[in-house]
Design brief:
mainly alpha; globular; 424 residues
């Protein structure tokens, strides 16, 4: 017991723990703000108008991974290895975001002009698209510039800024205005714009003016495509099950599975914070080959494995409280959460292998694996949900996560063995 306490004390004193904790606090606050404005908007607008808003955001979100064409990840990759490149790659990320974000916004407007959603005006669509496809990626560019520089405290402040600004937007909506979807769209857009400005000012104070090299920026488009595809595929296999459940099963099944998955996402926050805190380290280690990146992964593995086992155990202990908190109608959510809980371990292990590959310049194989997983997840959900409803969605998730984990670790082993033979 004393040895365990010493280990925990040592972890708390380390830079990795502090960075992960800062990011976790930022993500957790963002989750709280999202929950608050979910309740406020749902009660303010009612099911029809709120549903229209959510549907619009969901469609726009499909395009977010391509809004800056992966330039923020490319920024982290190069700046983590050479900080003198920050101004150039930060400038490139701004140019790409303005160009591709604007093009995608125009695409969104064309889609909604042809296929409008009731209760949502084209003005609201424009504001929401600009917010999520231009302003938010611009703020993310600043966040990721600080990640590349190793200044995660600054990255956390940008994440916090977005949460605070949107919370202030909600307060303004319910206290200063007669709430409408258009007014909320304006406030949502202003909050995101303010965050983008804050992000730019923070980066400017750190590195000075960004360097805009238009020709070189658009010659390097291929570097970010794999990152965009990877993010898009991950979004698909994380959210496809809930969409297909709504189409192929009952509303009750969606509620049961959705409540369980929401709690699961909260359980994943510490893992996600740790991996974001170490993302630049994988690029730095991977510059010397996959062997060095794997060595870093081995140091992180015990932390991820230990947390995953602890989280699964706590879920089994605490799940029976769900119907007492949410109501008797969510009794099956407790069962669903226990079934889903091993996903924490599988996601942690697959994310570690994925970051090892990305850090060692094997992002394309990661993207390929995630695209295959998205396709497989869709096929599994199509067949299993029809037969087993929310239980089928769980089995589709578990099978997809296990196979993705095995594929990625198999790729790590294959590249590690190949590189090792070259050295002999």
């Amino acid at each position: 017991m004393d040895n365990l306490r010493l280990l925990l004390a040592k972890l708390r004193q380390g830079e990795l723990f502090r960075n992960s904790q800062m990011l976790f606090n930022s993500f957790f606050l963002r989750l709280i703000v999202q929950s608050v404005y979910f309740v406020v908007l749902a009660r303010t607008f009612g099911p029809d108008k709120y549903g229209a808003f959510i549907a619009t955001i969901a469609i726009i979100s499909l395009f977010i991974p391509f809004a800056n064409l992966g330039s923020s990840r490319v920024l982290i990759q190069h700046v983590s290895r050479d900080q003198s490149l920050c101004a150039e790659y930060y400038g490139a990320s701004i140019l790409k975001t303005l160009f591709f974000g604007s093009a995608l916004t125009a695409t969104i407007l064309l889609i909604f002009s042809s296929y409008p959603i009731p209760y949502i005006s084209i003005d609201s669509v424009l504001l929401l698209a600009v917010s999520n496809l231009i302003f938010m990626p611009l703020s993310d560019n600043g966040r990721d510039a600080f990640i590349g520089l190793g200044l995660l405290g600054q990255s956390s402040k940008i994440i916090l800024s977005l949460s605070i600004n949107r919370f202030l937007g909600i307060l303004a909506l319910v206290t200063l205005f007669k709430p409408t979807l258009l007014i909320w769209s304006v406030l949502y857009c202003v909050a995101t714009l303010v965050t983008a400005i804050v992000s730019y000012v923070m980066v400017f104070r750190q590195i000075g003016y960004p360097k805009f090299k238009v020709a070189r920026t658009f010659q390097r488009l291929g570097q970010g495509v794999s990152f965009s595809i990877s993010d898009a595929a991950e979004n698909i296999y994380n959210d496809l099950d809930k969409t297909m459940l709504a189409k192929l099963s009952t509303v009750e099944s969606v509620a049961v599975y959705g409540a369980a998955y929401h709690i699961l996402n909260v359980s994943l926050l510490p893992m996600q914070s740790l991996m974001l805190a170490t993302f630049r380290d994988f690029f730095r280690a991977g510059a010397f080959g996959i062997q060095t990146a794997l060595q870093l992964g081995r140091k992180i593995l015990p932390i991820l494995f230990g947390y995953s086992i602890l989280a699964v155990a706590l879920i089994f202990l605490m799940s029976p409280l769900i119907p007492k908190i949410l109501g008797d109608g969510y009794l099956n959510s407790a069962i669903a959460l226990m079934w889903l809980s091993p996903t924490i371990l599988f996601k942690s292990l697959h994310r570690l292998a994925a970051d090892i590959l990305t850090g060692a310049n094997y992002q394309r194989i990661r993207s390929f694996a995630q695209v295959l997983t998205a396709l497989l997840n869709g096929v599994l959900n199509l067949f299993l949900i029809r037969i087993y409803q929310w239980r089928g969605a769980i089995w589709a998730t578990l099978i997809s996560e296990i196979l993705l984990m095995l594929f990625l670790w198999g790729a790590v082993y294959a590249y590690y063995t190949r590189d090792k033979k070259k050295l002999i």
